[in-house]
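Why do we care about 3D structure at all? Because function follows from shape, and shape follows, mostly, from sequence. That is the central idea of this module. The next example makes it concrete: a single protein chain, its amino acid sequence, and then its structure expressed as tokens.
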Amino acid sequence: MSEKKRPIQIFIHTGEVSGDLQGGLLIEALNRQAQERSLEIEITAVGGQRMDDAGARVIANTVRLSAIGIFEALPYYIKGRSLQKKVNQYLLQHPPDLMVLLDYMGGTIPAGKFIRQHLPNTPIVYYIAPQQWVFATQRDTQNVLDVSDKLRASFPA
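And the structure:
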């Protein structure tokens, strides 16, 4: 009697509305590809309703915490830190086979650094690397590169 293989565990982390939308589209595509290849996957996420609707188990809804502007975001800072601690604990208890960071640097870079430190053999893909225009620094770019094994764009090359 053969043992049943456990599903491939994928963890997707994003933090705002556009990331939730793109995450939902990504989850739908991953599920289609897995089905075509007769693979079993389980996707857990930090995101929002769109990712949940696409079939991920959303353990923290960060879309409710997103805001535009530093003063608008301040009320959400403490709640966001608390959620990240919950996510970190989950990751330690349920190490993923693949971590996907999606867009928003505010939450994804700390999550990527946590994975690098505590689960260093977990591959990390940055899907839709965050745009950096006016406030970009060399450090921001280096942070994305430091936590990523692969960068993937949503547009063909």
